[in-house]
Amino acid sequence: MRTTLHRVSSDAPARDGSRPDNSSGTAHPTLAQVVGALDGLYPPSTAEGWDAVGLVAGDPAAAVRKVLFAVDPVTAVVDQALDWGADLLVTHHPLFLRGVSSVAATTFKGSVVHRLLTGGCALHVAHTNADAAPRGVADALADLVGITDRRPLEVSAAGETHDLSHGLAPGAGHGTDYGTDRGIGRVGRLAEPTTLAGFARRVAAALPATAQGVRFSGDPDAMVTTAAVLGGSGDGYFDAVRAAAADVYVTSDLRHHPASELRERAEFESRAAGAPGPAGTPFLVDTAHYASEWPWLRYAVEDLAAALAAAGFTVEARVSELVTDPWTGQVPSR
């Protein structure tokens, strides 16, 4: 697993409380200022109504010198954040997506909060608001698999557009049209046509290694020229993929019945129409949930650092290298 370190400041304090030498004029932001920058990049108003995003724990007045980004707020990531001396942990997945009746330290989720607060580390979540954002989860995945001339698979219900050029890292998006439309997923053209099997191999090579690996559904030798991607669970967007006429769809957590029905319908309609080209599109490429969302973390590090630097602040931000996919092994079937 790769580690991405964006060292904007090298004068972070030690965990023993010693202060950095700010004689060079460096300034560290408060937690409130970092949250403001994150909300500028990933507005909470663009999150799905069922989601739980934003600041989970922490003192808005506290100084922030180190920020760790990770996909999941699991124990191993908390250990890493505290060992590194992070002042803020930003995760993609919420700790409290479903309600709890207690955050006592004797409960799993309560212990996470207590350990973070005791260690002086805040917790912030950017979930579906990061999925939909320019240079968010969908764009990061689209970049990795080589999608150009892209657009959202499904535009945000609010139809919001935002000029984020002030908040992006210098040079970010050079040669790539991220656009300003917020929405779930991305769809566009591949730089070069390829076979379905070749495309699946490209996806597997670009993503973090997991026990699941990458699986696909369709003729391995069929050529694909257009692709749709959606990081995380994506079989609820099959209608949008069909409407976009994508040859192949990359997502995660594909369930048996929705996937089977999509492929059966695609092949039936292709035969009935006598359509040319690859039979039975869209084909499917199923990845591990964690793996499809991890690439965004690098963009988040770069863009947060750029937004804070534009405001005169310095932080040290890092991407967690820990694999938090829950599956640890696989036995091939005979």
3D architecture notes:
Keywords: Metal-binding. Belongs to the GTP cyclohydrolase I type 2/NIF3 family. This is GTP cyclohydrolase 1 type 2 homolog. Pfam families: DUF34_NIF3. There is one protein chain. By secondary structure, the protein is an alpha/beta fold. It has 2 domains: 5-129 and 292-318, Udp-n-acetylmuramoylalanyl-d-glutamate--2,6- Diaminopimelate Ligase, Chain: A, domain 1; 131-290, NIF3 (NGG1p interacting factor 3)-like (Udp-n-acetylmuramoylalanyl-d-glutamate--2,6- Diaminopimelate Ligase, Chain: A, domain 1). Helix content is 30%, strand content 21%. The protein is built from 10 helices and 12 strands. The chain has helices at residues 31-41, 75-84, 108-118, 128-132, 137-145, 196-206, 238-243, 256-273, 289-293, 296-310; strands spanning 5-7, 54-57, 66-70, 88-91, 122-125, 147-155, 183-195, 215-217, 223-233, 248-252, 283-287, 316-319. The strands form 2 sheets. The protein has a 6-stranded mixed β-sheet, sandwiched between helices. Strands 6-7-9-10-11-8 form a 6-stranded mixed β-sheet. β4, α3 and β5 form a beta-alpha-beta unit. The model is unreliable at 1-24, 159-168 and 170-175 (pLDDT under 50).
> What best-fitting shape do the alpha-carbon axes yield?
elongated
Question: Average pLDDT, to the nearest integer?
Answer: 87
> Number of DSSP helices?
10
Strand order of the largest sheet: 1-12-3-4-5-2
Assigned CATH class of the largest domain: Alpha Beta
Low-confidence stretches: 1-24, 159-168, 170-175
Question: The biggest beta sheet, please?
Answer: 6 strands, mixed
Secondary structure tally: strands: 12
What is the helix content? Answer: 25-40%
Number of domains: 2
CATH topology of the largest domain: Udp-n-acetylmuramoylalanyl-d-glutamate--2,6- Diaminopimelate Ligase, Chain: A, domain 1
Structural class: alpha/beta
Q: Say which CATH homologous superfamily of the largest domain is assigned.
A: NIF3 (NGG1p interacting factor 3)-like
In quaternary terms, these chains amount to single chain
Radius of gyration: 21 Å
What's the architecture of the largest domain, going by CATH? 3-Layer(aba) Sandwich
Family: Belongs to the GTP cyclohydrolase I type 2/NIF3 family.
Subunit structure: Homohexamer.
Region (Disordered): 1-28
Pfam family, one: DUF34_NIF3
